[in-house]
Amino acid sequence: MLNWLFKTPSLPLDLSFLGADMHSHLLPGIDDGVGDAQEAVAMIRQMKAYGYHHLITTPHIIWDCYRNTPATIAEGLQTVRAACAEAGLDIQLDAAAEYFLDEHFSELLSAGEPLLTLPGKRVLVELPYTTPLMNTPEILFSIIGHGYQPVLAHPERYAYYHADPTIFQKLSDQGCELQLNALSLTGHYGEGVTRTAEWLLKHRLVTFLGSDAHRISHVEQLKKLTKRKDLKDYPFQNYKLSPKGI
Q1: 162 burial class (0-12, 13-18, 19+ CB within 10 angstroms)?
Q2: What was the pLDDT predicted at 227?
Q3: CATH code of the domain containing 77
Q4: Where in this chain does the entry annotate a coiled-coil region (predicted)?
């Protein structure tokens, strides 16, 4: 495993047109992402080789599972930044969070607690995978009412919307940005997810393309995107999240 720290892959994949990745789980031990700093460094090194120059990692905040706070996330970020510096890896690394729309999130919002955001006061949120919330549009609209820009993580992975993905057009029209997982275009999550991902692209509803990388195998699977020449022409807005632009 130590070899990961010193190996820079020579690969044809070029994701420099994205500039920034805004969804990943690179902070060790605080959610279901990387297990240690060595794996984080290996993933970051490989993503830099793909052309990313800015990574905004987004640990889960799911109060029943991962009770992360700004303090725990800041500590994890410092750990990984220090490991990157020790490995001689120079890349801009920041952190926000991926908030599950649970009661804890509603309490934070109602209490006016500062949220961990992407640039532009964007809040990355996720829904349950198996059972739809009855008031999803209302919750997302309430986020806007509190002065934030909601970004819905991996909409293509919510199987209960596969039969009628037009819900995403409605959410987009109401002001919610949508973030597609890159691996959804590779078949990684199954045919239904890939089909919905392609529908979202076809209808120009995707704002951001994110890796949602939890482990190094996810980063390695991004190589499958070399077959997707159309992605460079898609109007992804990842560049808006990085001061360096593209």
Answers
A1: middle
A2: 81
A3: 3.20.20.140
A4: none
Taking the C-alpha atoms of residue 136 and residue 128, their distance in angstroms, rounded to an integer, is 10
Q: Give the phi and the psi of residue 198 in degrees, each rounded to 5.
A: -65, -35
Report if residue 101 sits inside a domain: yes
Report how far Cα 214 is from the mean position of its chain's Cα atoms: 10
The 3-class SS string of 108-129 reads HHHHCCCCCCECCCEEEEECCC
Spacing of C-alpha 137 from chain mean position:
21
Is 3 part of a structural domain of the chain? no
Give the tens place of pLDDT for each residue, 147-163. 999 999 999 999 999 99
For residue 217, what are its two tokens?
């195998």
Mean pLDDT in the chain?
A: 93
Domain span at 27: 14-239
Pairing type for strands 149-153 and 122-126 reads parallel
Question: Sign of torsion, CA 132 133 138 143?
Answer: negative
**Beta-strand pair 60-61/92-95:** unpaired
Q: Widest CA span of the chain, in angstroms?
A: 49
Q: Assign 11 a pLDDT band (cuts: 50, 70, 90).
A: very low
Q: How many domains does the chain have?
A: 1
Amino acid letter, 55: L
* Domain presence at residue 4: no
